[in-house]
Amino acid sequence: MSGEKRPAPEAFGHSSQLVVKRKKSDADLNPGTAVVKSSSQNGALIQSIPRTSGLDAPIMELTGHSGEVFTVRFDPTAQHIASGSMDRSILLWNTYGQCENYGQLTSHKGAILDLQWARDSRALFSASADMTLGSWDVETGTRVRRHIGHEEIINCLDISKRGQELLVSGSDDGCIGIWDPRQRDALEYLETELPITAVALSEAGNEIYSGGIDNTIHVWDLRKKAVVYSMAGHTDTITSLEISPDSQTLLSNSHDSTVRTWDIRPFAPTNRLVRTFDGAPVGLEKNLIRASWDPKGGKIAAGSGDRSVVVWDANSGKLLYKLPGHKGTVNDVRFSPNDEPIKSRALDQAITQLKTEARFYVILSFIFGVFNLGIATTGEVVPFPKH
Membrane-spanning residues where (predicted)? Predict the structure, then answer.
């Protein structure tokens, strides 16, 4: 999405079957380079680094969707993964063991553009191009509530971190919706004049960060129902927003092919830009590519239009890895919420233990209409001893 609205997706067929087996597919190596800029250097180039990963391909690939994959999320326990696609379905996967696809959720009439897990991992929330949100019981595989009110595609979704469970949505209709998942209708809307493509709810739940096609991040005070300040710097549509684990920094991604960090502490300087990271081009598809923090806030990762994932040190700006393995745009990247190594059994029954100094990434892309979800590490891969 750029300055114009995206058309509604075409119809896709889907299965009503709950458990679906998926096959592993091949992955290609993709070279690339990346650079990073610091705001303290007035945007001057300070680093230029080639791809720095010895990883030739994702360790594990999960296939199953019949359309482009837009979103993926670990649940808070890191035991499960949910993925959402253009094919209108949500697939549920086990993170450990053989990474089985144990569930398929199908009730939306449009592409699944964003997902959020409930804090207790028993419910899943979805944002769709069909202009609705969905609340799902993942134990039964049923949609328990359909939330209506938006008048255009819903691009993004966030959930409260503490206190009352609330959802925040952003739509092409220019509205930010605030929802109680127990109710069908929104509690209220914050109205703007342009499409909203990214939202983030503060840790305290008193502020909403929004981005859209005006290239600017706006900060809303929920008590005043008004914008209290804005952060300018991006030169194209904001594609994702995420607050750091310590709640002091905001991470943004944009169609201008830059990832940026912003100081969101209460009394920060007027120029809140901390750092600008280059090296993750958006590509010709102009998808809403997302960036994310690792659980400790020390690393950030972003998908890109050059079929790779870029990982930086959030504090120094150093590029750590350029991870290959896809044949299309990488739309979303997520770190596992915990440090435990993943043990996986490949199709040839060989067992490996994946050791890493960082976390594990879930990497998405559209590969000729086939869903490709890669679980990759940034460190050593060693044989796991047989018992």
Answer: 360-382
